Amino acid sequence: MGVRQGSGQGSDGQAVIHFRAAGVTLLLAHLLFVGWLTLRPLDVPWTAAANFEPLASIRNDLALGPAEALRRIGGALLLLAPLGVLLPMAGGRVFVSPWVSLLRTVAAGALISLAIELGQTGVPGQVVDIDSVLLNTTGVVVAHLLVVPVCRARLRRRGVPGVRDLPRYRQETRLRDEAPGGSTPTISRVGIAP
């Protein structure tokens, strides 16, 4: 959600670097918290069997009543939801297709959720549940769709001086041409001798 490094001049460039570094730091802190929360051994008298049938544990949670279902399903939705914002923030791109950004973020969130579930296979008291992967990934999607497009639009409007009114392909060209070394010189086309 920040601007690519080097696209700003002076203090704008430093602000971008700090914004991206904050994203990486928050991302790592969140992943450490999630790892501690989900991969620590639990002292429980019994555990349920692993669930590999999609939506089975969601149906079971709904059967427990609205309050318990909200707690369990809401917890699974919120566990990895911050990744929907932190992954693009750590990536530091403002001028990117919203669909590409969503696809990248969702894929990374799903892989992280799957890694957590696979890691739980060897942890006492933790149970593998395919519905956790579905709910965690849904949380990432919802957070990304609610926050990232709005933040990127704001950053495009005020983030990079003189860029906000240009079409996207011209923005990229202009940012490249404003690089410290200038644009790369090109040679005009020369015909080949027979």
From TrEMBL:
**Name of the featured protein:** VanZ-like domain-containing protein
Keyword annotations for this protein, in alphabetical order, are:
Membrane, Transmembrane, Transmembrane helix
Question: Could you read off the lineage of the organism from its UniProt record?
Answer: Bacteria, Bacillati, Actinomycetota, Actinomycetes, Kitasatosporales
Q: Which domain of life is it from?
A: Bacteria
**Residue ranges of domain VanZ-like in the record:** 28-148
Is the keyword rRNA processing assigned to this protein?
no
Q: Which Pfam families match?
A: VanZ (PF04892)
Organism expressing this protein natively: Streptomyces nanshensis
Which chain regions cross the lipid bilayer? Answer: 21-39, 69-90, 102-121, 133-151
